[in-house]
Structure formats: structure tokens, C-alpha cells
């Protein structure tokens, strides 16, 4: 803008937003992932990315506006269509009605997590230990069916994700005199599949469970707990 005799020429200017980069690392997304993608792999500022997935998959977030070089949200998830049919959308964020105890949650990826708990409002002789896959989006929360993969009298509970589709669950079973038990849970979309066998880690009464992932040349975890009266133990699983 030139200044001549106190007058700018031109008198003003405008600021244009930069393009948004289309994400390329989304599992089961089409190529390109946005329908409006330019030849340079970007989306023009002010446009909206229409999410695209491979056949058999659907996006949980369908539209991602581009504002000032940033997609909002920055990415999306493609889930199997048959898996989404097993989930429900909850815009209030309420996962389950009832009395929940021993809640544990473990992050999977891209806003998804596995949540496990005991529902104390159910009769003791019925299944009360449940897990569900939960996915949070800008539109709300999706939750998969509650699956009974824990004992009825599950007590203390801890989780560790060994991969985006594999979670190790360790818990105290009050029906087995407080024994500490672990089992592997397989995740596919919103479904919990491939339950591993229950493995008794400690046959005595246990408290204060803590589980964390470690990398020893592969996926693993370390489990620490208090056993019987005062003994503290850590095991590599």
C-alpha cells in the first residue's frame, strides 16, 4: 500500500486464510480423505471437507470446515458400517443409567476409549461387569453395546491398551476370595471380540491395582498390587 499525501493506495487490504492440509493417515479412509481435495492435497480456506471412507466404512464426523489453515476437527475416524449399527449416539454424554462402581477407562486412539465398570443396580446373581467402546466426536458421543466380559463380583479394576485393538484387563474377583485375574480383550470398531481366557495372577486377596504398558521388544505390561496384608508385588505380563 503506497502512501501519498496522507492517502493509502489502495485504501485497505484483506487477509485470506491459508489452505488446510488434508489428513493422509486415517485408517480405512478413501484417497483422498476429503471429497473437496485440490490437486496439491489441500482444501481451500472457507471450504468444508466431506469425509470419505473405503467401501464398508463410514465416517463418524462427516463435515470438517477449513478455517485459517485448520480443519475443525483436525481429523476423523472411519468405522465399519456393521460395527456402527451396534452403537448408539448419546448427545447428553450419559453412558449408562444405574449405580456404577470400579470404573476404569483406557484410551485407544482418535478420541476412542474402552470403559469398564460394575453395575451395582443389577441383581447379584446376574451379570454386572461390563465394558463398552466409547468414541467422542465434535457432534457428541457414540457408545457400543455393553458387553459382559468381567465377573459379576468384579472389584478393583485396571486397564492397559497394548494396541489400538487389544486391551489387557486386570481385576479383583470378590467371588474368588479377592483373587487377581487378567484377560485380554480384542476390539473391533465398537465391538469387543476375541475374549482371552482368564488367568489368575494371584490367588490371595488383593488391593490397589495398577497396570501400565511397557515396551520390551513387543507389547507388554507391568502389573503392581498389594497382596494379602501388606506385601506389594509387581509382575511383567
Could you give the topology of this structure?
Layout: E1 2-4, E2 7-9, E3 20-21, E4 29-34, E5 42-43, E6 48-53, E7 57-59, E8 63-67, E9 70-71, E10 78-80, H1 81-84, E11 87-90, E12 100-107, E13 112-119, E14 129-136, E15 141-144, E16 147-150, E17 154-163, E18 166-173, E19 179-188, E20 191-193, E21 199-202, E22 206-215, E23 219-227, E24 231-236
Antiparallel strand pairs: 1-2, 3-5, 4-6, 6-8, 7-10, 8-9, 11-15, 12-13, 13-14, 14-15, 14-16, 17-18, 18-19, 19-20, 19-21, 22-23, 23-24
Task: Describe what is shown at a glance.
This protein is mainly beta and 237 residues long.
Q: Give Rg in angstroms.
A: 24 Å
Distance, first to last CA: 68 Å
Helix-strand category: mainly beta
Treating each run of at least 4 consecutive H or I residues as one helix, how many helices? 1
Multimerization state: single chain
Mean pLDDT: 86
Number of strands: 24
Largest sheet features = 6 strands, antiparallel
Low-confidence stretches: none
Q: Can you put this structure into words, describing what you see?
A:
This protein is an all-beta fold and 237 residues long. It starts with a strand and ends with a strand.
